[in-house]
Protein backbone atom coordinates (compact mmCIF):
# COMPACT_ATOMS: atom_id res chain seq x y z
CA UNK A 1 0.00 0.00 0.00
CA UNK A 2 1.19 3.52 -0.72
CA UNK A 3 3.01 4.85 2.38
CA UNK A 4 1.33 8.27 2.13
CA UNK A 5 -2.11 6.65 2.02
CA UNK A 6 -1.17 4.52 5.01
CA UNK A 7 0.00 7.61 6.91
CA UNK A 8 -3.31 9.31 6.11
CA UNK A 9 -5.27 6.27 7.27
CA UNK A 10 -3.40 5.98 10.57
CA UNK A 11 -3.50 9.76 10.98
CA UNK A 12 -7.15 9.05 11.82
CA UNK A 13 -6.09 7.00 14.87
CA UNK A 14 -7.49 9.43 17.41
CA UNK A 15 -6.10 7.60 20.45
CA UNK A 16 -2.51 7.60 19.11
CA UNK A 17 -2.87 11.31 18.34
CA UNK A 18 -4.23 11.95 21.83
CA UNK A 19 -1.24 10.15 23.38
CA UNK A 20 1.15 12.17 21.18
CA UNK A 21 2.56 9.42 18.98
CA UNK A 22 4.22 10.46 15.71
CA UNK A 23 4.52 7.95 12.88
CA UNK A 24 7.99 8.17 11.29
CA UNK A 25 8.45 5.35 8.76
CA UNK A 26 6.18 2.86 7.01
CA UNK A 27 6.81 -0.08 4.69
CA UNK A 28 5.19 -3.51 4.29
CA UNK A 29 5.82 -5.43 7.49
CA UNK A 30 7.68 -2.56 9.16
CA UNK A 31 6.93 0.71 10.91
CA UNK A 32 8.62 3.17 13.22
CA UNK A 33 7.11 5.82 15.53
CA UNK A 34 8.16 8.09 18.37
CA UNK A 35 6.71 9.44 21.59
CA UNK A 36 8.14 12.34 23.54
CA UNK A 37 7.53 11.63 27.21
CA UNK A 38 5.70 14.47 28.95
CA UNK A 39 4.11 14.93 32.37
CA UNK A 40 0.87 13.39 31.12
CA UNK A 41 2.68 10.14 30.28
CA UNK A 42 4.01 9.56 33.80
CA UNK A 43 2.51 7.17 36.32
CA UNK A 44 2.24 7.75 40.08
CA UNK A 45 5.92 6.92 40.70
CA UNK A 46 7.14 9.30 38.00
CA UNK A 47 8.06 6.93 35.18
CA UNK A 48 6.45 6.50 31.77
CA UNK A 49 3.17 4.68 32.24
CA UNK A 50 3.04 1.17 30.80
CA UNK A 51 -0.07 2.16 28.85
CA UNK A 52 1.84 4.94 27.07
CA UNK A 53 4.64 2.55 26.11
CA UNK A 54 2.12 -0.10 25.07
CA UNK A 55 0.23 2.43 22.94
CA UNK A 56 3.42 3.40 21.11
CA UNK A 57 4.24 -0.25 20.40
CA UNK A 58 0.65 -1.02 19.44
CA UNK A 59 0.55 1.71 16.81
CA UNK A 60 3.61 0.43 14.95
CA UNK A 61 2.20 -3.10 15.26
CA UNK A 62 -1.02 -1.92 13.59
CA UNK A 63 0.76 0.06 10.86
CA UNK A 64 3.25 -2.70 9.98
CA UNK A 65 0.58 -5.38 9.85
CA UNK A 66 -1.84 -3.31 7.76
CA UNK A 67 0.83 -1.99 5.37
CA UNK A 68 0.01 -4.64 2.76
CA UNK A 69 -3.36 -2.99 2.20
CA UNK A 70 -5.53 -5.66 3.82
CA UNK A 71 -7.18 -5.28 7.21
CA UNK A 72 -5.17 -6.94 9.96
CA UNK A 73 -6.52 -7.08 13.51
CA UNK A 74 -4.62 -8.03 16.63
CA UNK A 75 -5.56 -11.36 18.17
CA UNK A 76 -2.79 -11.70 20.74
CA UNK A 77 -0.07 -9.50 22.20
CA UNK A 78 2.41 -9.69 25.02
CA UNK A 79 4.72 -7.03 26.35
CA UNK A 80 7.74 -7.18 28.62
CA UNK A 81 9.02 -3.99 30.22
CA UNK A 82 12.81 -4.05 30.58
CA UNK A 83 13.66 -0.59 31.89
CA UNK A 84 11.78 2.48 33.02
CA UNK A 85 11.95 5.85 31.30
CA UNK A 86 11.25 9.21 32.95
CA UNK A 87 11.86 11.68 30.13
CA UNK A 88 13.06 12.04 26.57
CA UNK A 89 11.92 10.32 23.41
CA UNK A 90 10.93 6.69 22.99
CA UNK A 91 11.03 5.03 19.58
CA UNK A 92 9.17 1.87 18.63
CA UNK A 93 10.20 -0.23 15.63
CA UNK A 94 8.07 -3.08 14.30
CA UNK A 95 9.56 -5.96 12.35
CA UNK A 96 7.59 -8.75 10.73
CA UNK A 97 8.64 -12.18 11.98
CA UNK A 98 6.28 -14.36 9.92
CA UNK A 99 3.32 -13.96 7.59
CA UNK A 100 0.85 -16.23 5.84
CA UNK A 101 -2.54 -15.57 4.27
CA UNK A 102 -4.38 -15.58 7.62
CA UNK A 103 -1.85 -14.79 10.38
CA UNK A 104 1.22 -12.61 10.82
CA UNK A 105 3.52 -12.08 13.78
CA UNK A 106 5.53 -8.97 14.67
CA UNK A 107 8.24 -8.08 17.13
CA UNK A 108 8.35 -4.50 18.35
CA UNK A 109 11.33 -2.99 20.18
CA UNK A 110 10.84 0.19 22.18
CA UNK A 111 14.07 2.06 22.92
CA UNK A 112 15.08 5.35 24.48
CA UNK A 113 17.41 8.02 23.08
CA UNK A 114 20.48 6.07 24.22
CA UNK A 115 19.22 2.90 22.47
CA UNK A 116 18.41 1.26 25.81
CA UNK A 117 15.74 -1.40 25.44
CA UNK A 118 12.64 -0.19 27.30
CA UNK A 119 10.15 -2.86 26.18
CA UNK A 120 9.66 -5.83 23.88
CA UNK A 121 6.20 -6.32 22.39
CA UNK A 122 5.18 -9.37 20.37
CA UNK A 123 1.88 -9.48 18.54
CA UNK A 124 -0.07 -11.65 16.15
CA UNK A 125 -2.74 -10.41 13.77
CA UNK A 126 -5.54 -12.08 11.87
CA UNK A 127 -5.41 -10.96 8.24
CA UNK A 128 -8.91 -10.39 6.88
CA UNK A 129 -9.86 -10.29 3.22
CA UNK A 130 -11.13 -6.70 3.49
CA UNK A 131 -9.17 -4.03 1.68
CA UNK A 132 -7.91 -1.35 4.06
CA UNK A 133 -8.87 1.38 1.59
CA UNK A 134 -12.53 0.37 2.01
CA UNK A 135 -12.27 1.54 5.63
CA UNK A 136 -10.88 4.99 4.83
CA UNK A 137 -13.15 7.83 5.97
CA UNK A 138 -15.08 9.55 3.20
CA UNK A 139 -13.16 12.40 1.59
CA UNK A 140 -9.69 10.88 2.16
Automatic annotation (TrEMBL):
SUPFAM superfamilies: Thioesterase/thiol ester dehydrase-isomerase. InterPro entries: Acyl-CoA_thioesterase_PaaI, HotDog_dom_sf, PAAI_dom, Thioestr_dom. GO terms for molecular function: acyl-CoA hydrolase activity. CDD domains: PaaI_thioesterase (cd03443). It comes from the Bacteria. Pfam families: 4HBT. Transmembrane segments: none annotated. Keywords: Hydrolase. Residues 46-118 form the Thioesterase domain. NCBIfam families: unchar_dom_1 (TIGR00369). This is Phenylacetic acid degradation protein. The lineage of its organism: Bacteria, Pseudomonadati, Pseudomonadota, Gammaproteobacteria, Chromatiales.
